[in-house]
Specification:
The complex is a heterodimer of chains A (292) and B (569). Chain A has one domain. Chain A contains 14 helices and 1 strand; from the N terminus they run H-H-E-H-H-H-H-H-H-H-H-H-H-H-H. Chain A is mainly α and 292 residues long. The longest helix of chain A has 32 residues. Chain A starts with a helix and ends with a helix. With 569 residues, chain B is mainly α. Chain B folds into 2 domains: 455 residues, no CATH class; 31 residues. Chain B contains 22 helices and 6 strands. In chain B, a hairpin with a 2-residue loop joins strand 3 and strand 4. In chain B, helix 1 packs parallel to helix 13, helix 8 packs antiparallel against helix 13 and helix 12 packs antiparallel against helix 16. Chain B is globular. The chains are: A mainly alpha (292), B mainly alpha (569). Chains A and B meet through strand 1, helix 3, helix 4, helix 5 and helix 6 of A and helix 15, helix 16, strand 5, helix 19 and strand 6 of B.
Chain lengths: 292, 569
């Protein structure tokens, strides 16, 4: 049963993530007045990458990327996708917070194995950006946990279904999470980490073939996890996967629309943005929760 | 003795006063930790201290420190406690100033330490004058006869002593310099258990002598609030200052100040999980910080440098040191499946469920800053490009590799099976009157959520294994040299371009003006003021006899006027 849930969770995460990635290309293309690639283009890319020759710089180069993908998948297993929650009794939201950082840490270890300055600059940017968005994010997660009096994901979802959505009882925290969602997902205007024109894709500069494919899959899962977090914490989750997906869709579209029109921030600007309005709103949200 | 704690024995009678040793779970736990860390440090010293001068003195002092710490932990009365505490403090002072550059750090340490010892002595004598005994067991039973105000002042006096030892802000100023300027071997002992004798002291005074219920009601919980908020400030300031450091040892030292904050936060918070987390984190921190100081020591031995801006790429030259350092950094950050994770999880959990979100936020944000400098530590020493002068660095000697391997195994063991130490802590808490949490070998069960590390362990193992098989099947990668990289048409010449320096430069520009060592700056201002004042006072000594006679005459005149009641006519 658990094995079935694990496989189901991994499969749903992958499929929905791929769909989102394909959709994002399509939407962007339409905004640019182009036709755009087919929805399943990311799968074609990944299959192609698996067939290419790749270059490795050593054991840590391989291990880091595996760790990163493993971390992303294990993190997924804690997220309630509808009624599919393979690891529900093993630590809850606090463990998710920690597991979310294994993926970037793995990528950082792997890409720093090669002596490439672009990779090091990319990692340094990733960690600065992560500190920036974690400050409001931690405030948001704390207000959710304080509001519902539990650290268990399942109970947070159940409590929302018993009364009303989190976005109604904690509007400010929800808005703050929406504001930092693009930064967490690492898409424009927050794509300083892998900025192709400045630092040749940053941490991914040395990846080719299977490494690039694994890094892409890891990215797909992270996009899924970030949006699923919003849905589970603020939109009442769901009792089955389909509704859950339908709730994720509008959030993803909002983020993509924002990302299409804005140019890239500089890393200082991104950090300042994160610790300014989102943090203030998240802080007020926490005060609101305590005050009630 | 081993299975029956709570024993007390008189070992010496001084002026008809019995000096006692006691044994309970708290002493047992700290005793084991002290002995193990010191044993590892001595093994490490075999190559670290090789060929240095005054070794006889060094080892004598190391043994004295060890004896002092064990004495403090096992002493059953305040006289023994004080005597061992002083033996420990003075030999620590001599060890910090063992290297010539450590002289000023040692002086700073001993001045603060003396202040602490005296405030503790006043507290002990105050208790003696009221209860007429020094025996800890007797004081425990009679403490509730004392008034609340008196107990409060005792707590403040002892907290000054233990706060200084544990480097709680604003009493932490001795720590960064002392850690940086002492011998690597001694830094291991100092950071691992010696600094944490303050934690032992806090547990002793708060939960054994004063007692849980009384502690929580003193001043309607204000004492506990002040301690927890001081701890929270320590966490935030110290971790951000650690982020700005470029010296590997100084980075670890500031980290240690921050972790002292976590421990005190847990202990002063006073819930079952909080105190369990505080004591468990003491052990965890000792293990990984000892390991990381050994890593820095090994790197310094081989390269002669611990400057994070100048090193790099040593991974292939010192593989064992690197991989153990990686595990150490994982524990240091608190990644799941390492010991640091479990103790921090307990702390967050109790803070959140008891509605202290701001304290929880300070603890969480401290961890996230730790990730930044943890990776910086790893990257700037071991990853990236290797400077040409370190091309032929030898690997670390066996006596350095052996302790770090054992310590890194301990990190994993207590991370996957945290129930082993938590069970002992549970027994300890039972004697202090806490409700005992349900503890399994794999973690901890509470009504509001469970931690199951073994599940997480198997989940991560299975996924990594699964991906590894996938990767093996479609795996056609060619191994190339680490310097053979893609540089977008602009190849990077060797040694022209040190990209490890100023690793988080954009962030530093933002936070450097905010996070400075304000407390040290304040103390330095006081010192400066005192110096200029004395300079001015010195000017009255002109060396001319006539002037001195004038002073005397003026003083006599002043006394006469005073005698006449300011009534000259």
């Amino acid at each position: 049963m658990v094995i079935l849930l694990i496989v189901g969770s991994i499969a749903i995460g992958f499929m929905v993530g791929v769909l989102f990635l394909g959709l994002s290309r399509k939407v962007k293309a339409r905004i640019h007045w182009r036709y755009g690639p087919p929805l399943y283009q990311p799968i074609i890319d990944i299959v192609k990458l698996f067939h290419q020759e790749s270059v490795s710089h050593g054991f840590l180069f391989d291990f880091g990327i595996l760790l990163s993908l493993g971390g992303a998948i294990v993190c997924l297993l804690f997220i309630p996708i509808g009624n599919i929650i393979p690891l529900q009794g093993s630590g809850g939201l606090l463990v998710v917070l920690y597991l979310m950082l294994i993926a970037p840490f793995g990528i950082a270890l792997s890409s720093a194995e090669a002596a490439n300055p672009n990779a090091s600059i990319g990692i340094s940017r990733k960690f600065i950006l992560a500190l920036g968005y974690e400050i409001p994010f931690l405030l948001i997660v704390l207000s959710v946990m304080t509001n519902y009096g539990t650290t268990s994901f399942v109970e947070i979802v159940a409590l929302q279904r018993a009364s009303h959505w989190g976005i109604i009882s904690m509007p400010l925290s929800g808005i703050a999470l929406l504001l930092i969602l693009p930064a967490m997902m690492g898409i424009r205007p927050f794509d300083q980490v892998g900025a192709p024109q400045e630092i040749s894709s940053g941490p991914e500069v040395e990846y080719g073939g299977i490494y690039l494919a694994l890094s892409e899959i890891q990215h797909i899962y992270l996009i899924f996890i970030d949006i699923a977090l919003f849905v589970a914490l603020f939109m009442g989750g769901s009792s089955e996967p389909l509704t859950f997906f339908l709730k994720m869709l509008p959030i993803f579209l909002i983020v993509i629309l924002v990302s299409t029109v804005y140019p890239r921030f500089r890393i200082e600007q991104a950090f300042s943005y994160c610790i300014k309005w989102p943090t203030i709103i998240a802080f007020l949200g926490l005060l609101l929760v305590i005050w009630r | 003795m081993y299975r029956t704690p709570g024993l007390e024995t008189t070992y010496f009678t001084f002026l008809n006063y019995p000096l006692k040793l006691k044994m309970d779970w708290l002493s047992w736990f700290f005793g084991i930790a002290i002995v193990s860390i010191n044993l590892f440090a001595i093994i490490f010293s075999l190559s670290d201290m090789k060929g240095k001068k005054r070794l006889d003195l060094f080892y004598l002092l190391m043994l004295l420190v060890n004896a002092g710490m064990l004495g403090v932990v096992f002493s059953g009365d305040f006289i023994s406690f004080y005597v061992y505490w002083e033996i420990m403090s003075w030999s620590t002072f001599l060890l910090i100033s063992f290297k010539e550059e450590g002289w000023s750090a040692g002086l700073k340490y001993i001045i603060l330490s003396i202040i602490g010892s005296f405030s503790m002595l006043v507290g002990m004598l105050a208790i003696y004058s009221n209860l007429g005994t020094f025996s800890i067991g007797a004081i425990m039973k009679e403490m509730h006869y004392l008034s609340t105000g008196f107990t409060f002042s005792i707590l403040v006096l002892f907290s000054i002593a233990f706060g200084i030892k544990n480097a709680l802000m604003p009493l932490h100023t001795w720590l960064p310099d002392s850690y940086t300027d002492s011998e690597a071997t001694f830094t291991v002992v100092l950071s691992g258990m010696l600094t944490r004798m303050g934690v032992f002291g806090f547990v002793l005074i708060l939960y054994i002598i004063v007692g849980l219920t009384r502690f929580q009601y003193i001043g309607s919980g204000w004492f506990s609030h002040v301690l927890t908020y001081l701890a929270a400030i320590s966490i935030i300031l110290a971790t951000f200052i650690a982020l700005l450091q470029d010296d590997a040892k100084k980075l670890l030292a500031w980290h240690s100040v921050g972790q002292g904050g976590y421990i005190i936060l847990g202990i002063a918070y006073g819930t079952t999980l909080g105190v369990a987390s505080g004591i468990f984190h003491t052990l965890n921190h000792a293990i990984y910080i000892a390991l990381l100081f050994m890593v820095v020591g090994a790197v310094e031995l081989r390269t002669g440098s611990r400057d994070l801006n100048a090193l790099g790429g040593l991974r292939s030259r010192m593989p064992v040191i690197f991989y153990t350092g990686l595990i150490g950094i994982a524990g240091f950050i608190g990644i799941p499946l390492t010991n640091g994770f479990v103790s921090k999880w307990l702390l967050y959990k109790t803070l959140i469920l008891n509605h202290s979100p701001f304290l929880a936020f300070s603890a969480l944000i401290g961890t996230w800053v730790t990730i930044l400098y943890g990776f910086k530590f790893l990257h700037n020493i071991f990853l990236g490009q290797i400077p040409a002068k370190y091309e032929n660095v030898e690997r670390a000697p066996f006596s350095m590799r052996f302790p770090v391997i054992l310590l890194s195994l301990a990190i994993i063991l207590f991370g996957v099976l945290p129930g082993i130490p938590l069970r002992v802590i549970g027994w300890m808490q039972k004697t202090m009157g806490f409700e005992v949490a349900k503890i399994n070998i794999w973690g901890i069960v509470t009504e509001t959520g469970t931690l199951n590390t073994v599940n997480i362990f198997f989940a991560i193992m299975l996924t990594v294994f699964g991906i590894y098989i996938l990767y093996r099947i479609g795996f056609r990668s060619k191994r190339v040299a680490r310097e053979d990289t893609y540089a977008a048409g602009h190849p990077v010449p060797r040694d022209k371009y040190a990209y490890t320096s100023e690793f988080y430069a954009p962030l530093f520009r933002k936070i450097k003006p905010i996070f400075r060592e304000w407390v040290s700056i304040f103390f330095e201002k006081i010192v400066k003021f005192g110096r200029s004042l004395s300079d001015r006072i010195r000017k009255i000594y002109v060396g001319d006899l006539g002037t001195y006679v004038l002073y005397i005459v003026l003083f006599l005149a002043f006394l006469l006027i005073l005698r006449m009641g300011w009534n000259l006519w």
